Amino acid sequence: MKLYISCDMEGTAAVCSWMQCDPSNTREYPVYRRYMSQEVRAAIDGARSAGVTGVLVNDSHWDMRNLLWDELPADVRVISGSRKPFSMTQGLDRDYAGAFFTGYHAKVGDADGVLAHTYTADVLYNVRINGTACSEALLNAAMAGYYGIPLLLVSGDRVVVEHVKEFIPQVTGVVVKDGIGHYSAASMTPRAAQDLLRDAAARAIREAAASKPFTFDSPVVMELDTARVEQADFIELMPGFERTGGRTVRFADDDYLTVFRAFVAAFRLGGAATAPA
Amino acid sequence: MNIYISCDMEGTAGVCSWQQVDARTPSPEYPMYQRYMTAEVLAAIDGARNAGAEHVFINDSHGPMRNLLLDDLPADVRILFGNRKPLSMTQGLDANFGGVFFTGYHGGIGDADATLSHTYTPSVVYAVRINGMRCSEATLNAGIAGYYGVPVLLITGDRVTVESAKEQMPWITGAVVKESIGHYSVDSISPRAAQELIREKAAEAVRNASHARPFVFEPPITMEIDLARVEQADLIELIPGFKRTGARQVRLRHDEYPVVFKAFVAAFRMGALADLPS
Predict the structure, then answer these.
(1) Cα dihedral A189, A192, A198, A200 sign
(2) Which of A82, A238, A258 sits opposite B266 (nearest CB)?
(3) What is the pTM of this model?
(4) Are A241 and B259 in contact (CB < 8 Å)?
(5) Is residue A163 among the annotated active site residues?
(6) Three-class DSSP category at B133
(7) CB-based contact (8 Å) between A54 and chain B?
(8) What is the ipTM of this complex?
(9) DSSP element (H, E) containing B267
(10) Do B237 and A258 touch (CB under 8 A)?
């Protein structure tokens, strides 16, 4: 059985500030980068103890080159670097039997979700697919689902885990902390979180047969509320996007892959509106 | 007849350097050429009105698109001022206009002996073709006018700009205000002489309007963009409808030219993002 891991950072145990997750921060980031890597390592170890063979890890945080190679087993593959067309879901295909999302965080607008955001907090105020408010976890789980792959495990704070369980009840959820507002957390220690992840990962693999791929029904209708009017100005230039409000755009297609790519295009182009005109 | 004027700056008489047309960084030369740009637009309006034009709509189409010295213009024109218009240099065009003027226009990207030649964003757009035709800004913008059934009547700029436009739109009246010597120098008539010439040519253009035809891209419309850099194509191919046709090339097909044009605007804006460090 081959396993795909998308690893983010904000949902790592003890993380509660952007400064811990910002690669330009030379004081805190190196510490939490190591914890992030160790949580990924724990998930891999647990999965392997339950029979997983091949592992692909997609570094999915910030500039997407966070993982410390030396903290990982020698025989995994890692996708490192940014601007991947499928971003946090790059490399997913039918070869994988399951997906893990580690270090994930709550969606933009969630209270008590530590560092809650959805892709680009500067641009996205809300993301809805077929009317459902979506986190990164849900958007990405549907990319796995597109290839028939179930999401087996999600780790992060309580809000993101419970959000995912609402839509994917069979998922193994690993709550490593409780958010207190946006910028603080009551957390397990990193070591305890790693132990918990190792056990949960093994259990998730053993119970994989009960899991189902998560998909959105076609036609897939995506609505984006942008943070600012001028971002919607840019996004509506793209073919297929319709301006449905001062700060809302809509895109629909039968194919979720097309919708997801359009989503990536939208938050990138929306980001360009931040520059002075 | 109502006239739509899209006014750029690089093709203004005397202009031969980016510093003269740089509205963003305080450039000591800019205010002077801003005045010449405005005077050429005023001359075009005067000429058009001498030949019977009524309402005039001006779309400031250069840089941040707020260059025109408003006090120098007649009180009864409308001006489109400011940046990030979805149809950019062609914003506001519709079937209510009898003709279009392009003033201060410049050569397309890659044109030799065309001062400051480029097509929208030179750091991104290496070449742009519609239905196989190499396009300058004049060509792309004329296509929007043509979509609404409006012909381009007048173009002013250097010789290459005017002659390329005449190849694609033989009915156009041209005012050649300078000969370019390479990219950064010109052999120019004086601003005052250029204004006289533009006044005459604008009148002539309006009088000859019945011979002019809308410039239309026939559907299905295929746009190909060659990018300056590979990483720009990486981002642009994410835009719905774009296909990656080469390492530095993307293509889009659509039957509606305004959709194609807006996709072009989205593409050059998106491409510029690739210049940020990854």
Answers:
(1) negative
(2) A238
(3) 0.90
(4) no
(5) no
(6) strand
(7) no
(8) 0.82
(9) helix B257-273
(10) no
